[in-house]
Amino acid sequence: MARTGADEAGPRHVAIIMDGNGRWAQSRGRPRLFGHHAGARRVREIVEACPDLGVSYLTIFAFSTENWKRTQTEVAGLMSLFRRYIMKEMQDFVREDVRVRFIGDRYRLEPRLRELMEEAEAMTTHCARLNLTIAINYGGRDEVARATRRLARDVAEGRLDPETVDEQTLPRYLDTRVLPDPDLVIRTSGEARISNFLLWQSAYSEYEFIDTLWPDFTREVFASVLAQYSTRERRFGAVTA
Ligand code: IPE
Ligand code: IPE
Ligand code: MG
């Protein structure tokens, strides 16, 4: 049975579309931001659970290139939550040996947030127990477009021969260039769509769509989704004997 990129028990790289914060809050008669705060607390729990569950890469979708379409109140509230989250967690990441990276177009983010992101990345470069990647202002199409722009520049300036461009070339220009492809992509809240997440990288990922809303996604739910993954057979186009 082929399970490339993962140890025999479970996935090495898990990516999560953390969806359902708004509905979770609304069902309690609270504003959407209340749900985003509850969701941020779950991130801590899931980050802590990863090493014990054999997960060494965790990539989480926090804000998409499409999420700017939300109300100004919600967008500003999310940006402030990201700032506070990074400030509060930075020391813990170092202590827990978690290397933090961000993907997405950070140049569209406010300078203060960008500075904090860079600080968190710099402070954790030596950490190795878990690779946590947070996608902020991330869109798969935007990422491929930005990668293509850099690739085209390299061709125009004579650093890259266009005849050599193949499937291995583009990933070197993606935001995820140092990460393995995700073995498993989980989406919470019952929606069965990708919403522009890791389009290139998830070509052969397993998907789990679960009904649980993100603020209810406990360590136990996470463990059960990973157990489900380990029953799957990944064929990558081949036929198993
Ligand atoms: C996901 O929860 C978090 C972000 C997109 C920032 P939502 O805010 O999309 O919650 P629902 O889907 O409206 O319930
Ligand atoms: C995807 O969720 C983005 C994040 C979880 C950050 P959305 O709630 O924005 O996706 P759609 O709009 O339902 O597709
Ligand atoms: Mg949503």
Q: Keywords, please?
A:
241 residues, alpha/beta, Undecaprenyl pyrophosphate synthetase, six-stranded parallel beta sheet, 37% helix, globular, disordered N terminus, binds 3-methylbut-3-enyl trihydrogen diphosphate, binds magnesium ion
Account of the protein in words:
- The structure is a single chain.
- With 241 residues, the chain is α/β, with parallel strands linked by helices.
- It is 37% helix and 15% strand.
- It has helices at residues 21-26, 32-49, 72-95, 111-123, 140-156, 219-229, and strands at 13-17, 57-64, 98-103, 130-138, 184-187, 206-209.
- It has a six-stranded parallel beta sheet, with helices on both faces.
- α4 (111-123) links the parallel β3 (98-103) and β4 (130-138).
- The protein starts with 12 loop residues before the first strand and ends in a 12-residue tail after the last helix.
- The structure holds 3-methylbut-3-enyl trihydrogen diphosphate (2 copies) and magnesium ion (MG).
- One 3-methylbut-3-enyl trihydrogen diphosphate binds next to β2.
- What small ligands are held by the chains? 3-methylbut-3-enyl trihydrogen diphosphate, magnesium ion
CATH topology: the name is Undecaprenyl pyrophosphate synthetase
Corresponding CATH architecture: 3-Layer(aba) Sandwich
Elements, N to C (H/E):
EHHEHEHEHEEH
Mean of residue pLDDT values:
96
Task: Provide the spatial order of strands within the biggest beta sheet.
Answer: 3-4-2-1-5-6
Quickly name the level 1 CATH class: Alpha Beta
- State the low-pLDDT regions, or none: 1-7
Largest sheet: 6 strands, parallel
Overall 3D shape: globular
Number of strands: 6
Question: How many domains is the backbone divided into?
Answer: 1
Radius of gyration, whole Å: 18 Å
Number of helices: 6
Could you name the CATH homologous superfamily? Decaprenyl diphosphate synthase-like
Termini Cα gap: 9 Å
What is the structural class? alpha/beta
Task: Report helical residue fraction.
Answer: 25-40%
How much of the sequence is in beta strands?
Answer: 5-15%
